Amino acid sequence: MYKISYIADGINTEYLFSFPFFQTSDVCVSADNKILDSGDYSVAPNEDFSGGNVVFSVAPSDGVNIDIFRRISLSRVIDYQPTEKIDPEALNSDFNFLLEAFKDLRSVDVDLTEWKNIHDNVLSFLEYNLSVIEDKLSGGSVLGLYKNLLSVLDNALPQLINDYGSITEPAPNENRDDYGVL
Fold first, then answer.
1. By the 8 A CB rule, do 32 and 65 touch?
2. Which residue in 28, 55, 176, 181 is deepest, having the highest Cβ count within 10 Å?
3. pTM for the whole thing?
4. d(Cα 43, Cα 66) in Å, to the nearest integer?
5. Which residues contact 3 (CB under 8 A, 6 or more apart)?
């Protein structure tokens, strides 16, 4: 990723940058790591879009960290028609655009060894949790709790309610607090 940084002095409103871009919307600016709205600044490009100046409408405060960077919007710029000749300049421009976009993607440097370690650790953690869940559902504690609940209900409910839902005998006094008055 193309990026240049400055520390604002509270007076200067123009900051130079020298990296290639395709349109002014490719140039982004942040102040203290907060991306600014394009209304806060304007971009004055060089003739060949190899750099230019960022001009602020109001000078950034003293000590503010200014970052000017490129963020290419991946979108089609040229539409090739099947019945027309392909203009070599347009084709070269299209390939240059793709090449620069790939350079920006590659600049996001990822330590593949670190990523693999993180991935493997997360994967082994998820596999362990899956095995625990499968174990618990296939017998373990869930089934044990279910069987325990069935045995409690098997012993308590027949004394209170018959198959049709009517009360067959009153709840004993010692259980009245648990079941209420039925």
1. yes
2. 28
3. 0.52
4. 14
5. 67, 68, 69, 70
3-state secondary structure of 34: strand
pLDDT in tens, 3-17: 899 999 999 999 999
The tokens for 16 are: 């130079």
Angle between helical axes of 112-137 and 140-160 (0-180°, round to 10): 30
pLDDT tens digits, one per residue of 9-66: 999 999 999 988 888 888 999 999 898 988 889 999 998 888 999 999 999 999 999 9
Query: Could you give the CA distance from residue 71 to residue 38 in angstroms, rounded to a whole number?
Result: 13
Torsion angle, alpha carbons of 95, 96, 99, 100, to 10: -150
CA 139, 142, 147, 148 dihedral sign is positive
Count the Cβ atoms, other than its own, within 10 Å of residue 102: 11
Q: Is residue 15 a contact partner of residue 66, using CB atoms and an 8 Å limit?
A: yes
Using DSSP bridges, classify how beta strands 27-31 and 65-70 pair: parallel, antiparallel or unpaired. antiparallel
Q: How far is CA 158 from CA 24, 42, 146, in A?
A: 80, 82, 18
